[in-house]
Amino acid sequence: MKKENWVLFPFLPMDYKAAEVWLNQKAAQGWQYANETTLWGYLICLRRTERTDLRYCVDISGGTADQDYRDFLEQAGWVWEGTVRCMDLFSSLPDAAPVPIQTDADLERQRFGRRYFWRTWLTNLAVSLAAVALLVWLFGYQMPPTDLPLFFLSLLSSWWGLFRLALLPILLVSILWELTALPLYYFRSRREGLPDADPKGAWRRGVAEFTVSMLVKLLLILNVVLSFLPGLDGSYDYQERETLRNEPVVMAEDVGLTYSGSGVDLGSHTGTILVERWEYRELAERINAQSGWLRTDLYRCCSKGLASWAAQALMEDDPFTPVALGFEESWICQPDETLGSYVLVLREGKTALRLSGPVDWTAEEYRGILEELLNE
User: Fold this and answer.
1) Nearest by Cα to 334 from 350, 323, 349
2) Out of 16-30, 167-181, 348-362, which region has the weakest mean confidence (pLDDT)?
3) What is the pLDDT of residues 161-217, one digit of tens each?
4) Domains present along the chain, CATH in parentheses
5) Range in 42-56, 74-88, 249-263, 282-296 the model is least confident about
6) d(CA 25, CA 86)
7) What pLDDT sits at residue 338?
8) Burial environment of residue 6 by CB neighbours within 10 A (0 to 12, 13 to 18, 19 or more)
9) At what angle do helices 159-192 and 148-156 cross, to 10 degrees?
10) How wide is the angle at C-alpha 45 spanned by C-alphas 70 and 124, nearest 5°?
11) Any residues with CB less than 8 A from the CB of 285 and at least 6 apart, and which?
């Protein structure tokens, strides 16, 4: 017969009475709490026992300030076994028949509010509001609204970014749960008293919270791991320029310009099943010996709708006008006429492309380059 068993203990602190009923059910089956936990207290160890008089009582923990209280309970027949996620677990001493720890429902509710609700919930509220304020500041203040579509496209093109996107709704669900479930329970208990223990309902509620909590932790760990893995960002520098000849980027020689050789090439290539993204720019010398940036931004998407959205994002706030070039969608812009720079945005099928530089992209001589870049 198995003498030790690790089991899930998902009960929330607000369901501590249900946890007490569950532990007593296990005691009746011949199992006792072994004072060993793991996985942030969600897994506890149970061991076989021959005791038939074993009983458990669960109370909200007051921390080290409760030591005198625990000593008093031990004299009354209860011994403190440990604390699991803000819950103190007490077991009855052998051959003792201790009375229940809590006997007054009003005092029990007040203790719950004083020791757990106001302390824990207000702390969670402060942390959550700080996190939301930080996100609003980062994405609302530091990043203009016009940059948000391109930011999300960059996330869709990166496995790391996809993990971050997956984390966001799960994190929001977790925050909403923390900020609503506990106060609703507490204020309802003030009106109606603490509800009767329901181990099955508390178990399901705890498993849901456990699942969300583990997903948040897993995605956070994966984000950290992915951030340290080499090569995931697909970035490259000027020393790797010649290796990009067969990639979907435009170089100076492709459009009759001269590469400046300044060593400031910037580029990256990332891709997922949703979006493959190429970004590349280099300094090219013009006829008048001045240098200008030649840039390629290309997105190959999983659907035409996403490609159309990418094309709209690539136009940003510049004054683009439609132009007929034989592609499904095309726009041209000349932000600075004095420098002779043009910006062209195209969308063909599931590919969106933006080209910028000292080149008139609408000229017939560059049509083959455009068709090759848009070839899926």
Assistant:
1) 323
2) 167-181
3) 787 777 777 777 777 777 777 777 777 766 666 666 778 888 988 898 888 878 877
4) 4-92 (no CATH), 105-228 (no CATH), 235-374 (3.40.1000)
5) 282-296
6) 21
7) 61
8) middle
9) 110
10) 65
11) 252, 257, 258, 259, 260, 291
Distance CA 99, CA 186 (A): 26
d(CA 348, CA 248): 14
Q: Which of 46-50, 121-125, 324-328, 361-365 has the lowest mean pLDDT?
A: 121-125
Map the chain to HEC letters.
Answer: CCCEEEEECCCCHHHHHHHHHHHHHHHHCCEEEEEEEECCCCEEEEEECCCCCCCEEEEECCHHHHHHHHHHHHHCCEEEEEEECCEEEEEECCCCCCCCCCCCHHHHHHHHHHHHHHHHHHHHHHHHHHHHHHHHHHHHHHCCHHHHHHHHHHHHCCHHHHHHHHHHHHHHHHHHHHHHHHHHHHHHHHHHCCCCCCHHHHHHHHHHHHHHHHHHHHHHHHHHHHHHCCCCCCEECHHHHHHHCCCCCCCHHHHCCEECCCCCCEEEEEECCCEEEEEEEEEEECCCCCEEEEEEEEEEECCHHHHHHHHHHHHCCCCCEECCCCCCEEEEEEEECCCCEEEEEEEECCEEEEEEECCCCCCHHHHHHHHHHHCC
What is the token pair recorded at 114? 């004083």
Residue carrying structure tokens 């994405």: 139
The residue assigned the tokens 């109370």 is 59
At 178, list the tokens.
Answer: 């923390």
Cβ contact 335:288 at 8 Å: no
Write down the mean pLDDT value for the chain: 81
Nearest to 269 by CA among 148, 158, 151, 156: 158
24 CB-contact burial (10 Å; exposed 0-12 / middle 13-18 / buried 19+):
middle
